[in-house]
Structure prediction request, 80 residues.
Amino acid sequence: MKLSRTASWFLAAFGVWSWVIWTTFAKNLWKDGSGLAFDDAGDPTAYFWVHLTLAVVSFILGTAVGVIGLRGVLAHRKAR
Prediction:
């Protein structure tokens, strides 16, 4: 399968965007002071674990998508 140059760049950019967004989210989750992520004793709640899992899965998928896009970009450069 061949990706267009536009699709390759889009996927690479999506991978970067995913890391920026989910890194910010994870930092904010860790510093949460609203009582959702940590209970009164400071222990993580189910909310914390669910959202941390979402962030980790998004890191993995964002990395995979970004690598596919990067490989497409590099293949287009090599073909020139």
About this structure: The mean pLDDT is 95.
